[in-house]
Amino acid sequence: MKSETNKRTVSPTPACWQREAPCACLRVETSPREAHVFPYQHLVTASLNHGQEPETLRLTFSSHDVEIAGRNLRPLLLALQDFAVKWVRAIPERYHALEPGENGAEVALSIQAKAKLNAEI
Predict the structure, then answer these.
(1) How confident is the model at residue 91 (pLDDT cuts 50, 70, 90)?
(2) Residues 6 or more apart from 13 whose CB is under 8 A from it?
(3) Which of 15-19, 73-77, 90-94 has the lowest mean pLDDT?
(4) Paired sense of beta strands 43-49 and 25-31, if any
(5) Cα 36-38-39 angle, rounded to 5 deg
(6) How far is CA 37 from CA 26, 30, 44, 74, 103, in A?
């Protein structure tokens, strides 16, 4: 017989990121068919611009830039500071109008590869 206390509580909004320390890498899912994994040791900087709607969180890795647009992104930034975010993903458009839960609401994710510099010696 299963106890009622063993049931998971359902969040009113879908989870957009998961905190789990320690993590060696951050998985970024830009769509159901595309995911990227970035080692935390390659994270150069993270910055949050929350003076406008939507907020923008920018992550600079050694080879790529990741931009996350959404609401309530400060908890995500603080978890990234601890290298404690296992994954982050965009939410489907049908959930965009919902209020952000404790894990925030990321509306969009974009990843840009940095141009390689080729120097001839």
Answers:
(1) confident
(2) 91, 95, 98, 99, 100, 101, 105
(3) 90-94
(4) unpaired
(5) 155
(6) 6, 11, 15, 22, 20
Bridge-based pairing state of the strands 55-61 and 43-49: antiparallel
Question: 19-45 pLDDT, tens per residue?
Answer: 887 899 999 998 888 999 999 999 999
Name residue 109's beta-bridge partners.
Answer: 68
pTM exceeds 0.85: no
66-77 tens-digit pLDDT:
999 988 899 999
Rg (CA), the chain: 16
Tokens 């017989």 map to which residue?
1
Q: For residues 79 and 67, what is the distance between their CA atoms, to the nearest angstrom?
A: 16
